[in-house]
Each structure stands twice: as C-alpha cells, then as structure tokens.
C-alpha cells in the first residue's frame, strides 16, 4: 500500500505544479506578459516627456507581471482595435481603462478581471459654455467620443437615442479634446477620470460636469485561451486590494479614487 500511497502523492504534487504554471504555457512569448494599451487614455495609460509609458494601468500591469514572475512588454494600439487584438491573441492582456460591462463580462471572446478602480460616465465642455450645467442640458448638443467608447450608451439609456444624435468619433483623447477646445463639438462623453485628469493637470479651457452619470469599474481583459492567467490576475488583484497596493497606485495618479463599493450592478 505504501508505494501506491507515495505514487498518489507524487501525482497530486505534479498536478498541482502543472496547474500553478499552466498560465505560462499559454503566453504569447515565454516568460513575457504581452500587454495591449493605447498610451492615449490618461491617467490610465499615457506617455511622459521622455516617451515612456506611464499611468495607473501601466503601473498595475507592471506590478502584476512582476508578481507573476514575468517581464512586461507593452504593445501600443488604437482603442478601436484593442479588444479584437486580445481576442485574436495579439496580447496576453489589455490594460487600457476598459469599462467592465455586463456584456463584456458575459462575452466568450475574452476574460474580464474584477474591477480594480471605480470610474463613471463623465462629460466635459468648453469653459465658455453656459447652457450645459447638468446632464439634463445635454440633449440635442453635438457629442464627441473616442471611437469604441461605451459610455455614450449610458447617456442614450438615460435620455434616449434621440438625445445623443450622431456623435463625432475620434481615434483618441488628444484629438477629441482639441476639437472640444476649438468648439467644433459641444461636449465630450467618456469615462470620468481621463478628462478630469487631463483638464486638471493642464491649462485647457475646459470644465467637467460636476456629477458622474453612474459609477462603473475598470477591469483588465485577458485572452480567451488563458483562463489560468485570468484566475491568477484576479487573485493578485484581491491581494492588492487587501494590502493597499491598489490604493497606493491610484493615489499616485488621481488622489482619492471613487469607491469600488459604489459600482452599480
């Protein structure tokens, strides 16, 4: 009986080791966590004056890679191709201010992590604008959005499709903010923290609506063929919430963050 018992233990240990390491087997490149990001969604992902990627999501993804025993490698792409890229296996993970929606969570095209930061639907306009003081004033105005952004759908849900008309779409925040600054559009709609950061950290003649239209969460997106990686990332996110790592990262970039407890179902 003893040899059988020993063999059983060996097999159990081997199985445990394989399970623990299985996410590495499905990586695009051995020993590397390949991360898709736009580099154009401050303060989550952006470039500094030395052309280095920085931001909340960059710090978080780098920390995750380190704790997974991997080297982070960032691939920069426009947002419109980001989710298709992770679905097709171009990245192991996307870290780029991705809203965690019910539709995305239910999708078989990729895995979504738990939310790591609370965000919301925000709107901004030129500081000279006097006829938009609340969400009740936005209908009939010319909207601008980053192409592929889902927040405009929340405005349509709250006020109807006729309210938003046909928004102008832009490849990134730089182009969107420039047109708003030049009054080619009346307001922008997107996640709350990006324009809030861009407006407060620069001298743009723009202002935010004071309230967010609902609070949601941002999450990481993991390629569909690596569920073990998704599980390992979720485990680390839980650890970061408990040990203060997430608070330290978000405070560095935006001060006090919205509470994850305020995220709507």
Automatic annotation (TrEMBL):
Transmembrane segments: none annotated. Residues 32-257 form the Solute-binding protein family 3/N-terminal domain. Keywords: Signal. Residues 1-19 form the signal peptide. Pfam families: SBP_bac_3. It is found in: Cell envelope. It comes from the Bacteria. GO terms for cellular component: cell envelope. The keyword Transcription regulation does not apply. The keyword Signal applies. PANTHER family: AMINO-ACID-BINDING PROTEIN YXEM-RELATED, MEMBRANE-BOUND LYTIC MUREIN TRANSGLYCOSYLASE F. This is Amino acid ABC transporter, periplasmic amino acid-binding protein.
